Amino acid sequence: MIILTSYRVINLRLVDGRIVNQLEEYQKYVLINNPVTYIYYNLKNRKIYVGETNSFNSRHSQHLGETNPKFNYQEFTNCLVIYSNLFNKSVILDLESLILNYMIAEADSTRFVFANGNNGQTELIYKNKEEILTEVFYKLWTNELHVLGLVNNPNINELRESLLFKYSPFKQLSPKQKEIVDEIEKNITKKYLVEAPAGSGKSVLFTNLAFSLAERNPNLKIGLITTGNLTKQFNLIFKSIGLNERLKVKTGSQLILDAKKNDKKFDIIIVDEAHKLKQHYRKGHPNARRHLKEGEEELTLLEGITDGLVLLYDPYQGIKPQNIRPSKIRNLTKEYKKLMLVQQFRIGGNGDFSGEDFLKGILYGLQLSDNKNFNTKVFKDDYFKIVDTFKEVIDYINIHSHAYPKTTNRVIAGYCREWISNTSKKENKGKKLEELPYDWNIDGINKRWNSTYEDWVKKINSENEIGSIHAIQGYDLNYSGVIIGNDITVNDGRIIAVSENYKDIGGTPLKEEFSLSELTEYILNIYYVLLSRGMDGCAVYFEDKNVEKIFRERVGL
What we know:
With 557 residues, the protein is α/β, with parallel strands linked by helices. It is built from 19 helices and 21 strands.
């Protein structure tokens, strides 16, 4: 039985690049005259190439004639050609992008290597986009691509939550993201400070810029830095596009130590989450400061090993004294070219307000900013709610996890409880998870802190734990339940830190340099990060009702 769909496919068999199918006349016509999206593949050696063209036969000949292809096109055994009377240039470009991004999302299981280059495509807007998504892409993915073995997981929603999908270097860029990539590519020996708030697409810019630079400049020495809990994901992405030998993502300390040891210099270094660059700090973890002498910080050391430097930076995400303070960053980057990236991608809106309104409101509500220029409707929408009890914030996540089982929802909190369940503690050695003590006990509910930092949200038991800032920074959630703890209170109308209730050992200033205002800034930055994790919803529980009162007043509740 033939199922009528909004698209059709031709699966070409290839031998040394030659098409060996006996084609019907209409198929020959399609391959010469129609706009199509196509997928070259070789299942045995796990190679893929996704493309689009207005004439497949011409494009196929061009591929075979390429002088230095990333992969020899004669080694592909098949090519799936997708066509439809709905297709035009915008559609085939968009379909190419969708297929690539979702295939990247499961590259850790399929082990495909993509021969594609980076075309720096900006977001495509066209009138039948929703129809292409539902009637062409979704059906193509779950039917032909799955049946052919090009797809492991037919569940689109599940893949959309993958970090590999979110940070794919084939993502369509916003006009501003594309403008920044183009500007940096014109002068890679310059130094740039790209200021970008939470959810504005820093990490997509990071992978896209790195890929584009590597592809266009084969001899360019590129250094890549991100936080420890994301290096694995980024390295897997670059492995899937065959660039893992040239693009290795490291932490700042790893890259600096490696450069010192091997007397290495880079043409350009790109730093994701640059607000986490470190300075020497005696209380810091030994592994995080072994590359730093007294008075040193990572930014100056990086400048010593590269000509070009790109910092993707949010001044409100420095969360501990070990991070270089915003005032010092401003001083150190006085001569840098300043670029801004403000569009909000993580948090949506409903037409009346935007994600930018929400972030501005958080900053104003927490007294991190004096900018009142935001639409307070965002805090009265279904997206946001303040709950009265600890139990309610736990229930909020539980309810949404049961209602939407394919979403990622977690309870996260400020560091206002000791981590007594830490398995590295002497008294916990040899204990099973269920034997460990609880860190939280409120309203008769017992909870533990995150049992790991790396990829915490992907761990099976993380739904039953409470995530700290160190486990969640850099990650997205669908629904977030945020606990704003008793490590802040109100004094004379100002939110201030309660130092005895802040339990991050490495997060407090040195005693001889102790500043309550500095500690307050770190803690409020933590809450800004926690409150900006949820894409679809956010519920907040305030332990200190005076903090809740002042927050409500400032955001118009």
